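Can anyone check this?
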Amino acid sequence: MSKTVAEIMTRDPIVYKVPSSVGEIIKTLIRNNITGLPLADSRGKYAGIISRRDIFDHPDEDQTAMSMRKASPVYEDQPIENAAEELIKQNRRHLTVVDSENRIKGIVTPQNFLHEISARFGKKRVKEVLRGVAIPVWEETPLNAVAFTMRLSKIYAFPVVDADSNFKGLITDRDLFDNVDVDTSHQLSETGMADDEDPWSWDGIRNVVTYLIEKRNIVLPREPVKNFMITEPVVTNSNDTLEVAVRKMEAGNYNQLPVLQGTGQLVDMLHDIQILSVFL
């Protein structure tokens, strides 16, 4: 018997109200080290959702109402298959859960489905759900060019290869700045986000760093991506079962895994959102 959305959702998410400023949303994302949250209107009813990707897509907007998505929610008593289908349809990582009166009850992301995928579809092979969404980048590509490619493609995790197409590592939007020396207090002041005494964690700032790039407050170095990539990322094999792959994703809180075959040849990327197709 299928589970309901209420059984897997994250309850009592942080909720912000509209109207509000994008700066306030960014502060909330940073403070709580999250990447998205639902929005309510003045009556406390669901109004929309905003994530760091929505902020990235509207770097010049200051008002939440202009950056948020009025995306369809899912009801808490619906089967999880409906939520999986809606996430795939929207191709976004956050889906708001509401009750019959349109009040916000929770939020679901692909990560909420992983345990159920392992239990119900764990024997399927990774190769059965691959969709060919890997964009490899050459290890000598300048980091600033990688960031530009991410923004245009809206794909935020690239496998890195050498001149002979050998798999060398992985770079994601959250990894770009691990080794970049940035005066965070100055950058936050420039964006109007340092007007209180709360400490700002670098992990949280990485969640909105593309926003800072778009506002021209950070200039990425033109050093090759090989200097910044993860050189030994967690990977999966195309013949692995989903149970094996999902266990790796859950253990490391990964949204994606490079997929290898044979003696280590790169064949694709496995994204958690594409695994949701098993429910359709």
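Reply from J.R.: I decoded it. DSSP finds twelve helices and 13 strands in the chain.
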